[in-house]
Design a protein that fits this description.
By secondary structure, the chain is an alpha/beta fold. It has helices spanning 9-25, 70-86, 123-132, 197-207, and strands spanning 2-4, 33-37, 46-54, 57-65, 110-116, 120-121, 137-142, 148-153, 159-163, 185-187, 194-195, 211-216, 222-227, 233-238.
Length: 242
């Protein structure tokens, strides 16, 4: 259990006890990593993240909520997440419990860069990771093309694949159901933009996007820029594990 900011001791106690009950209910004898981040402004939401392993599969939830309620929201989401994954059910989308952080803002800084060794796999495998980790978008290397790509949840239901350059289905496999859950897959019809980080940040803030996948002009690798709950930005890029 880790905390950031002025987290009330009652929230720490509540999180430890409640998540322990959820793990026992699902017959999981595994450790859990929980982080509670309190905002500087009491009027802003508290952020709670919980990570566990479900039968060797990393699983994560992250939610926000008012002080005193965010922990409860996270525990309930973790309980639903574990039940859903065991039943091989996909995440509901749109997700009323966590709407996208999409709003037009002034220019916000990139305050963190996360360098990760990207998974090389199919869109179905990338979607499974995105779902289990409670991400809205996931950066990976597409095994079919060798290009960096993302999958992300897409309205009204289903998943969208965005590659750096390839914009059409390569073969019959790409038009089949994405997973055992029969989630439809669509391929974004345009290549990712080639931008500098500063240009990507300007585009995201100006257009009110929750995230932006782009090809970095210097490295020519795919980067995923996303908005944090505090409004600032993080970029995920290929590299050594952060």
């Amino acid at each position: 259990m880790t905390t950031r900011g002025a987290v009330p001791p009652a929230d720490v106690t509540r999180a430890v006890r409640a998540i322990g009950r959820v793990l026992r209910r699902h017959h999981l004898d595994v450790p859990a990593r929980v982080r509670v981040t309190a905002p500087r402004n009491r009027e802003e939401p508290t952020v709670v993240q919980a990570n566990v392993r479900l039968h060797d599969t990393p699983t994560r939830v992250q939610v926000t909520g008012p002080r005193g309620f965010a922990v409860t929201f996270a525990v309930e989401r973790l309980d639903r997440q574990l039940s859903r994954l065991v039943a091989n059910q996909s995440r509901a989308w749109p997700d009323p419990a966590r709407p996208p952080l999409a709003r037009v803002t002034e220019q916000r800084p990139i305050i963190r860069r996360k360098y990760c060794e990207l998974m090389t796999g199919t869109p179905a495998e990338a979607t499974a990771v995105m779902d289990a980790m409670d991400y809205d978008a996931y950066l990976f290397t597409d095994a079919d093309t060798g290009e960096d790509a993302i999958v992300h949840w897409s309205d009204p239901f289903g998943v969208r694949l965005v590659r750096q350059r390839t914009t059409s289905a390569l073969d019959e496999r790409m038009s089949r159901p994405l997973s055992a859950n029969s989630l439809p897959l669509t391929v974004h019809p345009e290549p990712s933009p080639v931008l500098r980080e500063s240009e990507a940040a300007t585009t995201l803030c100006r257009d009110g996007l929750p995230f932006l996948f782009f090809t970095d002009r210097e490295t020519l690798r795919g980067h995923l820029l996303y908005r944090r709950y505090d409004g600032d930005l993080t970029v995920v890029a290929p590299g050594e594990t952060d």
